[in-house]
Model the fold of this input.
Amino acid sequence: MRQGSWELRLEFLRADLCFESASALERLMIQQAALCWLNLNMVECRHSNVIHQSIALPVGMYWEKRLSAAQRRFTRACDSLARVRRLTRSIPVQVNIAAQGGQQVNVSSPT
Done:
């Protein structure tokens, strides 16, 4: 696959993960997940090319380990993004507002 198509697919992935409207921390996690996705796809392509050839057992084991590592990295990046989103969106914020007559009004809402 050509470099331009990979860049386009990365941009679509970032858009699907709402990169533009995300917080700074979420943007870092989205970027990490997108890079892990790209790495996984590149390793899968190389793995597929190597496995279809007649290869020695150690070479096959190397590529299997490399593919498994790329899959783990991508899964961890997605889990981390989901965890950050869950934590940042589920924290309620309580604001105390003094109303007329000295009464206090408590307003709470999720962020």
Notes: The radius of gyration is 22 Å. Residues 3-110 form one domain. The helical segments are 3-16, 24-51, 57-89. The chain has a mean pLDDT of 87.
